[in-house]
Amino acid sequence: MSVLFADRIRFFDTTLRDGEQTPGVSLKPEQKLEIATKLAAIGIDVIEAGSAAASEGEQSAIRLISEAGLPSEICTYVRALPGDIDLAAEYGADSVHLVVPVSDLHIAKKMRKTREQVAEMAYAAIKLAKERGLIVELSGEDASRADQQFLNELFSKGVQRGADRLCFCDTVGLLTPEKTALMIPPLAKIAPLSIHCHDDLGMALANTLAALKCGATCAHVTVNGLGERAGNTAFEELVMALEVLYGYQTGIKKEEIYHLASLVSRLTGVPLPVNKAVVGEMAFTHESGIHAHGVMREPATYESIKPEMIGRKRRIVLGKHSGSASVEAALHEMNYSTDEAQLKEIVKRIKQMGDEGKRVSDADLMAIADAVLAIECKPVIRMRQFTTVSGSNMIPTASATLVVNGQEITGAATGDGPVDAAMQVLRKSVGDVADIRLEEYHVDAISGGTDALVEVTVRLSKDGKIITSRGARTDIIMASVEAMIAGMNRLLRETHEDRGKNPR
Ligand code: MN
């Protein structure tokens, strides 16, 4: 099935360069190193670490990553300017992504030069880069709108002068798979060719696959499809499309994909769109009763790939659409077991909450289940009072009084913000009882507007056991506190009680 593709497709990741050009994104050198380390570990061939000419921060990032001894090739973006190439060599990059405008629009309007002048600049830059011992990937910017004969000549002469590889940039996302099939084959004959696509019209993945099918041997990608404007070809989508739809073995450690996506989202501050393919929050979440039922009997009914493949888990959310099968599964995950009548009653109460427009958080489900099963189960932790204060001229502070194992504990803590302060005071208060760590914190606004219901998801761990817990409120701090307390109670209770047994 994979005969059309190169024996080995290479991945050139530009999350740290094109991805960082996403409006509003700026990464510190240490953050870039953290991402680069993960990119290398997952199997990326080339990491474009930044643009040395852009800033001092970029320069330190490139040096830091180049000196980290990662197994990937470390590349730097350069223009056809001697100064850029000197900087690339100085900061230790293995290669340069030498970008040269090739469409008449870019040559005349942006550069105010002629085709000949731009070509000469490119050749001189190649010569200098080779003298500096750099691998050269000669890249045609706006190649999809360029005169293809001029581009072919520039690429051929560039290779004669020492360029090692070439790259076709669809800079503003104007390719179609059909155009790609016409433009790529003659260029791919000149030297190993990369394809760099943008997603302005949602075509980046299709165009990248089309180019790889007809001669390109390397794909430029970004994690989560970050990049200028609508972004670049998404790494995770390309890998999964190649593997699942074309049966192509990419060699990428797929089970690390979700972890990488979450890391990049957290460090860049760009949230994953909830409905994003492969890595979006909802990609493996089921609410509808009938669908959830099908998925639990046979995941293939409503899932194209198994979530475990990319290091994720299926999630069943409860609401008014929930059927008894999904409620039972959620209860099972929390160690409850019910008979038919009890389950029916729990489902009825959940649907009532759903009809009132409420999301059923874990704390709600536990409260309902405990009530229906009449479990005499005193929570380990109960909250007496809780206050946060924050403002423009003060350090956000939270105070809380909790009853932990029957003992009243009052504490206060400061934080980076009111939510952080709240998390700190809760952890501090139970610190004597157990070492509970907050592994992950995630917020979703369920609807738009400042009065929106906010769902907070926390992942907590204790002695290697990890649980996920949720809280849903219109108040983000209270949703966080609710998720935290419900989760801590679960972690503490499950260690000394099996709540699965029905006492009646
Ligand atoms: Mn680009």
Descriptive report:
The protein is 39% helix and 20% strand. The protein is an alpha/beta fold. The protein folds into three domains: 10-268, Aldolase class I (TIM Barrel), CATH 3.20.20; 286-373, no CATH class; 381-492, Alpha-isopropylmalate synthase LeuA, regulatory domain (Double Stranded RNA Binding Domain). An eight-stranded parallel beta barrel has the order 1-2-3-4-5-6-7-8, surrounded by eight helices. Strands 11-12-13 form a three-stranded antiparallel sheet. It has a three-stranded antiparallel sheet with strand order 14-15-16. A hairpin with a 2-residue loop joins strand 15 (454-462) and strand 16. The longest helix has 21 residues, at 476-496. The protein is elongated and about 80 Å long. The chain starts with 9 loop residues before the first strand and ends in an 8-residue tail after the last helix. 43% of the residues are buried. Residues 18, 171, 196, 198, 228 line the site of manganese (II) ion.
What's the arrangement of secondary structure elements?
Blueprint: E1 10-13, H1 29-42, E2 46-50, H2 56-66, E3 73-79, H3 82-90, E4 95-101, H4 104-110, H5 115-131, E5 135-141, H6 148-160, E6 165-170, H7 177-188, E7 193-197, H8 204-213, E8 218-221, H9 235-246, H10 257-268, E9 285-286, H11 289-297, E10 315-316, H12 324-333, H13 340-355, H14 362-373, E11 381-389, E12 397-404, E13 407-414, H15 418-430, E14 437-445, E15 454-462, E16 465-473, H16 476-496
Parallel strand pairs: 1-2, 1-8, 2-3, 3-4, 4-5, 5-6, 6-7, 7-8, 9-10
Antiparallel strand pairs: 11-12, 12-13, 14-15, 15-16
Helix pairs in contact: 1-2, 1-10, 3-5, 5-6, 7-8, 13-14, 15-16
Bound molecules: manganese (II) ion.
